[in-house]
Amino acid sequence: MNSKKKNIFIIIAILGFSNFGFGLMVPVPQFSTPALCLIADGTVKSLETSTPPTCFTHPFGYACWPGGRFYQLSSGGTFSIPGLAVGNSAYDSIIDTCKNMGGEIDENLMSIIYAKDFGTPGTKVGNSNYIQDLKDKKKGNKFIPVYNNTAGDPKRLFIEGTKKYPVLNLDYNGVMADSELQSFSNLAINHAYSLAVQHMMDKAKKVLDSGTKVDLVNLKKQLDGIAAIRALFEKNTNFFINNLGNVKENAYGKTLDNVAEVFVYTSQNSIGEGKNNTDSTKTEKMLNLCEQSLKDLDSFILEKNKVRSIFENMMNLAKQIPGSEPRDADDMIKNPRKYTIPVFLVSQAFKGNLKMMKLFLEVDVFKNQLLAAKNKLLALKSVKENFFKKLNKKFSELNDTISALVKKKKTFEKVVDDYIVKKKKQDTDGTIKKNFEELQKDIADAAQSYGTLVKSIQEVQSVQDSEFSTALAGQQKRLPPLEKTIQGYIAYKDGMAKMVESAYQKVQDEKNANLAKVVQEVQDHINETNTLLNPIIGLLNNQQSADELWQKNFQRIGVLLNLLSKDKANLDNLSATLGADDVTIKSSIISLNSSVFTEIQAINEVQKRIVLSKIYGTYVEANLLKKRMTADSKDDQKSFNAVWEKYLQDGNTSLVFSEYNDIVLQKNRIKGVLSQSLGILNTMDKSSLDVQNLIKEVGLLLTPVDAETTLDKIFENNVVSKLKGKGLL
């Protein structure tokens, strides 16, 4: 623009934005920079043809300029035109158009592609900030471009072959997903030799402020991790490849196959689980193959050790990067994810040979597994076939033995308890002894079986195989409960003799206690009986009447007689429970039984004497009545004949009938007593002469009815006949 035209534009601009004038239109500035929109795939689009016009108001009217551009008053001038502040919002359409395309305005690329138009050294930073402020206001920050450090200055990465400016693709968690980590790592290998992490993180914060999910902490870990791994890669690639370049595939080509063959064999044969699927020759062959494979692995490990520290540093850095872990070596080789750079380095060293790559990645694991396989092969040779089956059988048999012990223990205890409860004679039939000896033997056998079981396990504890050791440990867990049970039975066995002895002693103590109780009761009964009988016996011995005293104590004496009879029965029952060793108790019972028997006899004897005395008294009275009815008046003035002779003299019948009636009453009373007494006499021990004589004499007074000796016949012949002879009856 020449000087004249420039001055005219400035004058028009000033007039247009002054408070003077009459609606002058603001002309379109001659200078501008096209707006560039960065898309997610890294491509860049110009917005000149797709953005609505940039329209704004001014004090004198309304103006519209072509859209998709940022205007300047001069070439490389500022986007912030003086006097157009009110119209800055017109650039919102540029931001919105790019957002609607799924992108963001990329001022950095504008400054690169349109370096001359974008700004001079004095305006470039201001123009970048101007657009950035617009994006911040409209939340238009969407992508995190990839930057390299170039002499400390972040430089936007451009892929010449694709003509793209790559950006980070974040997942819904705000970090790079596994696939993006792998892609970004490949990008770093080929293009991003030194990532400007902090510059990229500054942009990440703006993206977060614009509403996109960004996990700043974990994203930085991912970028730092890949940057650190890339730096190690850059520094050590030649050393790594040169050291592994001499490792020949033909030297280790069969190593993986041999290792696999050993693993298959050991996996198909379980130690102690049934008969091995093959013979000992095959096992020996596998042992030799295992030994050779271990030598090959050791040789390869020596080669790996040359670069181990480099590789492990890279792997450790990768492991710390947020992201998922591969399932195994095959998965790592196929989809290395965050491990892409170290796996790529291994691939370069072995020229992409997958077997060699896998061997390098897993050689240490293979060695450990092969050592375990060797232990298993040795165990296959040493552990007897069907070991676990036989071991389970031993456990089962021992459990059956213990179950039987439970029953036999209950039986033994019941036998002992029965002895205590029933107070049997001291194991006369040997039941306790029989059960005692059987249980003792069974417990000893169970303890021996447990010992054999423990020994079987101990004999194979030295076998160094994790699978077998795990199975064996499972079997060992079955031992503690059994050990506790067996120890309990051994302790029980040791205490059985004392248990029997205690049972015997308990019965003995009960016998002693029962005897003491019976002795006391019997003695009390004897003492009380003697207290009641002795005065009566004294009267009887002195030929005195004891009838009154007997009648007074008769009821209590009868009770004591019953008690003494029960005492005798109790003593007999107690005696039945005694054994051959109960000599002292037996002697006491015999003595006490004798005392009871004597006391019962004494009661019966006194009772007999009282009864006989009463009967004899009535018998005497009957003889006196006979004398009264038959005696001559000369011999007995109180006889009936004396009264009868007086009647014959004075004819007075009153005295005769009085005597008659008195005799009738006395006769009938005596007959009744004698008749009852005769019944009592017949129940008594007839070995006594007194009883025999009384039975005979009393019988003569009562029967037969027509006998001359009966009271009735004497009364008829000596009293009634006289009265009838005088007509008085």
Description:
Keywords: Membrane, Transmembrane, Transmembrane helix. The chain crosses the membrane at residues 7-28. There is one protein chain. The protein has 729 residues and is mainly α. The protein is 67% helix and 5% strand. It contains 25 helices and 11 strands. It has helices spanning 3-16, 92-100, 107-113, 115-118, 124-137, 178-190, 197-209, 216-244, 249-252, 255-268, 280-305, 308-320, 329-334, 340-349, 354-382, 387-422, 431-458, 466-476, 479-541, 547-576, 583-630, 640-650, 653-683, 689-702, 711-725; strands at 31-34, 36-38, 44-46, 54-58, 61-65, 69-72, 104-105, 144-145, 147-150, 153-156, 167-168. The strands form 5 sheets. Strands 3-2-7 form a 3-stranded antiparallel beta sheet, sandwiched between helices. Strands 1-6 form a two-stranded antiparallel ribbon. A hairpin with a 2-residue loop joins strand 4 and strand 5. It starts with a helix and ends with a helix. The model is unreliable at 1-24 (pLDDT under 50).
What key attributes describe this structure?
Methane Monooxygenase Hydroxylase, Chain G, domain 1, two-stranded antiparallel sheet, disordered N terminus, transmembrane, mainly alpha, 729 residues, single chain, membrane
> What distance separates the N and C termini?
202 Å
Helix/strand class:
mainly alpha
Helix content: 55-70%
Order of strands across the widest beta sheet?
3-2-7
Shape descriptor reads: elongated
Gist of the model:
By secondary structure, the chain is mainly alpha-helical. Among the domains are: 1-141, no CATH class; 515-612, Methane Monooxygenase Hydroxylase, Chain G, domain 1, CATH 1.20.58; 631-725. The chain is built from 25 helices and 11 strands.
